[in-house]
Design a protein that fits this description.
Layout: E1 10-17, E2 27-35, E3 41-47, H1 56-62, H2 66-69, H3 75-86, E4 90-93, H4 96-110, E5 122-124, H5 125-132, H6 137-145, H7 155-172, H8 182-189, E6 203-206, E7 209-212, H9 222-228, H10 230-238, H11 243-253
Parallel strand pairs: 1-4, 4-5
Antiparallel strand pairs: 1-2, 2-3, 6-7
Length: 260
C-alpha cells in the first residue's frame, strides 16, 4: 500500500528504448502502474514497434529484439490511448526527470501531440536515492565500516578511510558477487560503455550510426556535423581531448567514419 495521500492519480512508469539518446531513440516497451487516490492500482505494459532497428547493445540490456516488436503497434497507433491514460495524472519513476519524461515527450511530439511534465507533480526515486544516500567517501565509510569519518578531506584521513572502505567491500561481497582478483576488479572498475565509440564517450553508437555525445551537438549524427558544422570537429582536434576521440573527429573531417 502506498503511504502517500494522493489528490489525483499517480502514474509510475518505465520505458525501454532503442538507446540512451533522448532526442532520437525510440520506445520499444512502456510499462505503467496508475495508482488511484483510493489505493487501486491499474497496471499496463505493452511493447512498441520503434520503426527502426534495435541496436544489439540495447537488446542485450533489456532483452527486446527486433523480432519481438515487428508485429507490435507503432507509438503513433497507441499515442491517443497513452495520452488519455496519462491525462490528469502526476508522474513517478526511477530517473524519469533525467530520461523517461523527455523520451516520452519527444515520442508524442513526433505524432503531433503536445505532452509535457509541466503542471504535473513529478516524483523521481533516483533523485530521492541520490539525496538520501549520498555517494561520498564519508557515506561509504559509514556504510562499509560503520564509523564516522573524522578529518574528512585531509589527505591522510581520506587515504586511510579509502583503504578501510575497500577492505569492507571485500568482506561484504563474496567472490561470486564481486571478484576478489585484481585483474577482474580492474575490468569491473574500468568497464567502458559498449555504446561508446571512443574511450571517453565523446562519440557513441546509436542505431548503427555514430552520434556526437556531448555539447551543443549531442545527439547529432557525426556525418551531419562533419557537413554542417565542421568547425566543431576542427575545434575538437585542437583541444585537450583523448587521442582516440580526436582521431574520430579528424577522420570525419576527411570523410571517413567508424564502422561497426
Amino acid at each position: 500500500m502506498l503511504d502517500l495521500k494522493l489528490d489525483r492519480p499517480l502514474i509510475f512508469y518505465d520505458l525501454e528504448t532503442t538507446g540512451t539518446n533522448k532526442l532520437t531513440d525510440r520506445i520499444v516497451e512502456i510499462s505503467v502502474i496508475k495508482v488511484m487516490p483510493d489505493g487501486r492500482q491499474i497496471p499496463n505494459t505493452r511493447k512498441v514497434n520503434p520503426e527502426m532497428p534495435i541496436p544489439l547493445e540495447a537488446s542485450e540490456i533489456h532483452g527486446i529484439y527486433d523480432d519481438d516488436v515487428k508485429d507490435e503497434p507503432t507509438f503513433k497507433e497507441i499515442a491517443d490511448k497513452v495520452f488519455n491514460f496519462f491525462e490528469g495524472c502526476d508522474l513517478a519513476g526511477f530517473n524519469i526527470v533525467g530520461f523517461d519524461n523527455d523520451v516520452l515527450t519527444n515520442e508524442f511530439k513526433r505524432v503531433g501531440i503536445e505532452f509535457t511534465a509541466k503542471g504535473r507533480k513529478v516524483l523521481d526515486s533516483f533523485k530521492i536515492f541520490q539525496k538520501m544516500e549520498p555517494r561520498s567517501l564519508t557515506a561509504a565509510y559509514k556504510y562499509y565500516c560503520g564509523k564516522e569519518l573524522v578529518n574528512a578531506h585531509s589527505a591522510a584521513a581520506d587515504t586511510q578511510a579509502t583503504l578501510e572502505v575497500f577492505v569492507g567491500q571485500m568482506k561484504m561481497y563474496n567472490d561470486e558477487q564481486l571478484s576478489h582478483e585484481v585483474d577482474a576488479l580492474h575490468e569491473f572498475c574500468n568497464a567502458v560503455d559498449p555504446t561508446w565509440v571512443d574511450s571517453t564517450g565523446k562519440f557513441k553508437w546509436s542505431g548503427g550510426e555514430v552520434v556526437v555525445n556531448f555539447g551543443k551537438n549531442r545527439g547529432t549524427l557525426l556525418k551531419t556535423v562533419a557537413i554542417e558544422n565542421p568547425g566543431f570537429l576542427k575545434w575538437m582536434v585542437k583541444q585537450d581531448f583523448e587521442e582516440d576521440a580526436k582521431a574520430v573527429a579528424s577522420d570525419a573531417l576527411a570523410g571517413t567514419f567508424p564502422q561497426k
